[in-house]
Amino acid sequence: MREKFKISGILMSAVGLLLILSLVWGIKCDMELEKAKRNINMDYQRCFTEVVQYVDDLQLGLEKSKFVNDPGQMMRLSGEIYRQASMASSNLAMLPLQAEPLEHLGEFLNQVGNYAYTLSFKMLNGNGISEEEYQNLASLEKYAKTVAQSLDEDLEALYNGELEIGQSAKGAAPSGIDKALGELETGLHDYPALIYDGPFSSHLTDRKPLFLEGMKEVSAEAALEKVKEITNHADFLYTEEQGNVPAYYFYDKNGQESIVITKQGGYLLSYLNDRDVAQSQYTMSDAKLAATMFLEKQGFKNMKESYYEIVSDVAVINYAAVQDGYTLYPDLIKVKVALDDCTVVGCETRGYLMHHTKRTIPEIKVSEEKAKSKVNSHVEVVSSSLALIPSDGGTEHFCWQLEGKIEDRRCLIYVNTQTGAEEKLFILIESETGTLAV
User: Residue 137's closest CA among 161, 166, 117, 107?
Assistant: First the structure.
């Protein structure tokens, strides 16, 4: 009997010890989780701090530009403004913020940076800054000052604990920083339009979608039917969006799924299902087939798959329209396919809707062989095709697309079919997750 009590005591001690160990382990896990959360929030704060710093420097650079008269100094200053705007925009993109409040802030940074870059390039070619361009810089400085002051206040509130930034990740309700930036965004609608030869010139960003020209406007009810076809359910709220592509913006209560349907024509503009994606079960061939079928169902036909990348078990595939053997690169669509069940979880069609129209294709004046002769002699050309590519200023070039290589590095070289000029060159970055042209 004594032995039996002894064994029971040992067992109770062992159970007690296990409970204590479990409690300690749970506390340790909670501490690790809290530490991870603190580290993430510190990263977010660091990114936002850098956004504020770069915007402050950007505003100072624009202010200096009002006093500069020397072309060489102006060229250096323009280069700095471009760098600061680019870095501010890059850090902004790394924050878990909702997209809607940032639309005009991102556009503002892009336009400022590229306007400065265009002026820098102009001066590099020996041309001076006109009075109108100086006035544009002065106007931009005024708006940059507003942005900088607002962001400085937000940063102070963030460090004082009055604003939070991490909450807006993964479909949560708008965080304080989202709301603050949303208030700032309302003041950026009327900053001066800029007309210049650059990729973010107002005459490009404000253009109307060519593909939708002449199409009738659809009702919200008809747009919801389109949403049901894509998502297989209709549990959405919606608002109306204006701008150069008026649309219906549908979103679910949890913030996981959103879809935008154009008012004109009722076409899909964007779709995002921000669900958790499990480990890959399907191949890229499966994903490409699913993406192609999805596009055809949405009315986007004669599309050619371009380059792709796999990110967190999601295949991101680029498609371009095709006409008479030419790949029309301005007419781009991006499709995201989850590789756990091979369903489409994202799509962006703005490039196609803005640019797609039937082109008048000129007769080729520079032969394929002549185009190849324009290429650096160290490059081995391994394939050729025809392509239409955009210029930074919004025009388009009909080109020979020549794929070349030096040793193991591949590239794409675009030679104009009319003039023989080398228009663009991209290096192909290849990895296990896909191929990107940079």
Answer: 117
Q: Which of the 8 DSSP states describes residue 190?
A: T
| N-terminal to C-terminal alpha carbon distance within the chain | 81
Q: Residue 400 above 90 pLDDT?
A: yes
Residue 175's closest CA among 52, 56, 48? Answer: 48
Q: Where are the domains of the chain?
A: 29-205, 210-355, 368-437
Which uninterrupted H or E stretch holds 425?
strand 422-431
CB 344 within 8 A of CB 291: yes
- Give the three-class secondary structure for 56: helix
Q: Are 143 and 191 a contacting pair, CB within 8 Å?
A: yes
The whole model's pTM is what? 0.64
Between CA 90 and CA 92 the distance in angstroms is 5
pLDDT digits (tens, 9 = 90+) for 264-307: 999 999 999 988 999 999 999 999 999 999 999 999 999 999 88
Residue 436, exposed/middle/buried by CB under 10 A (0-12, 13-18, 19+)? middle
C-alpha dihedral, 277 to 283 to 289 to 293, nearest 10°: -10
Q: Are 321 and 328 in contact (CB under 8 A)?
A: yes
pLDDT tens by residue, 58-113: 888 888 776 666 666 677 788 888 888 888 887 777 776 654 555 667 778 888 87
* Length of the chain measured in residues: 438
Query: Reduced to 3 states, what is the DSSP secondary structure of residue 156?
Result: helix
Per-residue pLDDT tens digits for 145-180: 888 888 888 778 777 777 766 554 444 444 455 555
What does the block give as tokens for 380?
Answer: 């081995």
Tell me if residue 189 falls in helix, strand or coil.
Answer: coil
d(CA 274, CA 276): 7
Mean pLDDT over all residues of the chain?
81
Indicate the fold that domain 368-437 takes in CATH.
Answer: Nuclear Transport Factor 2; Chain: A, (3.10.450)
